């Protein structure tokens, strides 16, 4: 047993962080808040770096890595608040032409969600729906081009993630080659990894602010009331880390739902505490804290929420 | 990241399982919780069996009489012994987890030869004399005085929260040897015989009704100078060394046990109909997620210790903060499963609900743990 990042995994993490710091730093993040249209040049650079082809076999032009490495990369994406249907790009790189290279942008929509939402509707070249309420959609995948899909406007709470409400996708064609349970499972895991990255980042933001902000003649981080908030944030992030990494190693469906639950809690609760530590500045548009909180809210309801996870883990107690 | 075990680790596990299956049915019945001499004899006999089978001091260094096992082997040992229902470390806790490792790390050859073998054999029981009535979370405020008189220290003061004091042979004692020095620099670590004249033990009754710990009064107790471990006035550093020996494995068996209790709660709730209450059912599901993750965090911490050559990481405080809270939540959920029976103090879950209340206090309160996490891991400035 050696449940720690390998040297290669650490190098992958560091390299991804370096790439995202350089190509999607704070200026780019704030520019994306003002104009959330996806940057196709960046998307192709992510593709060149292996973001989407990470787990495709090397013979097919992929990087040949596994789910743990994907989790490491998506943790970094979550940390940087990198926008766009990244999970879909990664999961469909081997199934849809042009996705691995970043030439086409594809979104995954949870057809069984209520309402059915689509991320970045103006930027996607193809939409793939997993499941659905209609009997012929259950457990199956269908694809549509955006023009065929009936949509209603939806004012997304997350300024970095434009959303549309899908009202109907009548002309979709079946894509029976896709393993729907596996896509859902891996989408949940990679979403959890992003939540973990966000949770870890908000700890750093809170600690950085608490060290530098002075009140009553001392850094506020020297006061236990603030210190203990920060400590609690780290505890949440580290427990979620153990669960997310373990689920990435086992790939087990139950492990994934548990990891998602803990990562959702860590991302949302840490963003809330980070906001609190920032005081009045935390409540402003200018601070980045709200971007973490809003994205965490969005991800928390994607690919399985708390109710489903707790029911599954309750059922697992009595098998 | 690898969660599989090596062939060597699996062989270790298989051998241990075979031994446990052979030896556990031969154990005598467990003594009553109030029968302290009986508990001591039972715990000591179990330690002797471990010793004779080569499992004593598994994670101690070989030159201290241990087996020098890896942190992963130690994890396997704790997991398998708990799953098989083997006795808990009990009265041997302080000797095996605190005093012994301190003597192994800081003692002279003669001191190691005197005290380590009896700990490993279960022949001598140790207790801990650290906390005082006015030195709890602020341990360095301790005031028990030790004054040199020839070849002895003469010790006067009092200690509190001393588990197993009634049956212990030795006490790992922190005393103030230099009252003028800055408070962390005037402390020494002594091995005090509990039968020395001037030692008085007064059992303290816990809110659970039992006498799990005691107050120890010291009235001019003579402790030979050669019973001091480490240099004079260097006891604080010696103690910090001790406290870092647990490597995040102190609660491994308990996490295994909590997961078993949780499954029992679910079965009981199914039988008495409360399982149909979605709020309770999901609460149990949430606890299942929590304990599964605590197990993964344990594996993470143990792997980290393995990579750093046994030096504990910072994961211990993170783990303890979450685990102590989860344990209390578990038994609060148990009370809900029990319904009207939750007021029956004779029910084992009710007794465990009461004892769980100590977990956020003992071995560093949750507030102290948060200070440790904030200052040592996150690097936030020390407060006042």
UniProtKB/TrEMBL annotation, chain A:
Coiled coil (residue ranges): none
**Listed Pfam families:** Acyl-CoA_dh_1 (PF00441), Acyl-CoA_dh_N (PF02771)
Secreted found in the keyword field: no
What cofactor does this chain's UniProt record say it requires? FAD
Give every Acyl-CoA dehydrogenase/oxidase N-terminal domain span. Answer: 6-87
Q: Which InterPro entries match?
A: AcylCo_DH-like_C, AcylCo_DH/oxidase_C, AcylCoA_DH/ox_N, AcylCoA_DH/ox_N_sf, AcylCoA_DH/oxidase_NM_dom_sf
Instruction: Supply the alphabetized keyword list.
Output: FAD, Flavoprotein, Oxidoreductase
Please name the SUPFAM superfamilies in this protein's record: Acyl-CoA dehydrogenase C-terminal domain-like, Acyl-CoA dehydrogenase NM domain-like
Location of the Acyl-CoA dehydrogenase/oxidase C-terminal domain: 189-307
Give the family from UniProt.
Belongs to the acyl-CoA dehydrogenase family.
Name used for this protein in its record: Acyl-CoA dehydrogenase family protein
Source organism of this protein record: Streptomyces lunalinharesii
TrEMBL record, chain B:
Q: Which keywords fit this entry according to its UniProt record?
A: FAD, Flavoprotein, Oxidoreductase
Indicate the segments forming the Acyl-CoA dehydrogenase/oxidase C-terminal domain, all copies.
234-378
Domain Acyl-CoA dehydrogenase/oxidase N-terminal residue range list: 6-123
The organism's superkingdom is given as: Bacteria
Pfam families, per this entry?
A: Acyl-CoA_dh_1, Acyl-CoA_dh_M, Acyl-CoA_dh_N
Q: Does the keyword Oxidoreductase apply?
A: yes
User: Gene3D superfamilies under this entry?
Assistant: Acyl-CoA dehydrogenase/oxidase, N-terminal domain, Butyryl-CoA Dehydrogenase, subunit A, domain 2, Butyryl-CoA Dehydrogenase, subunit A, domain 3
Requisite cofactors: FAD
Acyl-CoA oxidase/dehydrogenase middle domain boundaries: 127-220
Q: CDD domains per the record? A: ACAD_fadE6_17_26
Q: Does the keyword Repeat apply?
A: no
The UniProt family comment states: Belongs to the acyl-CoA dehydrogenase family.
Q: What is this protein called?
A: Acyl-CoA dehydrogenase
Organism name: Streptomyces lunalinharesii
